[in-house]
């Protein structure tokens, strides 16, 4: 499926690839030919491509390289996985890309969204109380713009539930074909409960074992890597001069509130 937007100078090509996993490289070339046959008036215009989640397609990186090398089209790629920017880009698109990581709002940006200047140095009692209230809201609901701009508590909570379901089912279970869905949910719950604390895979393993949960450490390492890949967590190594003493401080970037579970 694709959408086209035309202006007097530019043509914008929005290509939705989420459900096209069976498409092959040759099909993509044919689709471009079909597009030009239908919209022949765009041949002399600059065509901008906006492509979301291209890793769902086989040989997507070869097609994008052909677009770049043969036609010099400006191409904008978006995706929710760091895999999108690793092996495929380093082998086929090396030197042709500029990567930008877009995270949730920082608290400074959060204040701007709330129409409050983040540069105030002296606060009155009323203003200080307002800032403290916003800190609580930020810690509870996170920095997703859609949530920040919504004032309804129930709607905010529902959006958080939808986000975690999206992360678990699309970015994790579907992408990595995880069978033990209960285990991955338990792990996510544990990481959220222990956000910004010093923990280790060994600690997680022992905690689950004490609860009667049967899982091996290699599986935990794999799940942990998957969660980092979809940017649900970021690990911060604890400083040590001895490598074997390094533990992991895990911090959730998703802004998903604990009451989601």
Task: Write up what this structure looks like.
There is one protein chain. With 261 residues, the protein is an alpha/beta fold. It is 46% helix and 14% strand. Helix 2 (60-71) links the parallel strand 3 (46-52) and strand 4. The longest helix is centred in the middle third of the chain and has 24 residues, at 153-176. It is globular and about 60 Å long. It starts with a strand and ends in a 9-residue tail after the last strand.
Sequence-ordered SSE layout with sheet pairings:
Elements (H helix, E strand, L loop, with lengths): L1 E5 L3 E7 L8 H14 L7 E7 L7 H12 L3 E4 L8 H6 L14 H7 L11 H17 L3 H4 L4 H24 L4 H13 L3 E3 L1 H10 L6 H13 L3 E5 L10 E5 L9
Parallel strand pairs: 2-3, 3-4
Antiparallel strand pairs: 1-2, 5-7, 6-7
Shape: globular
Largest sheet: 4 strands, mixed
Tell me what portion of residues adopts beta-strand conformation. Answer: 5-15%
Span from first to last CA? 35 Å
Number of domains: 3
How big is the Rg? 23 Å
User: How many strand elements?
Assistant: 7
Classify the helix fraction into a percent range: 40-55%
Assign the CATH topology of the largest domain.
Arc Repressor Mutant, subunit A
What average pLDDT do the residues reach? 76
Question: What is the CATH class designation of the largest domain?
Answer: Mainly Alpha
Fourth CATH level, the homologous superfamily of the largest domain: Winged helix-like DNA-binding domain superfamily/Winged helix DNA-binding domain
Uncertain segments: 1-9, 252-261
Give a brief outline of the structure:
The chain is of the alpha/beta class and about 260 residues long. The protein is about 45% helix and about 15% strand.
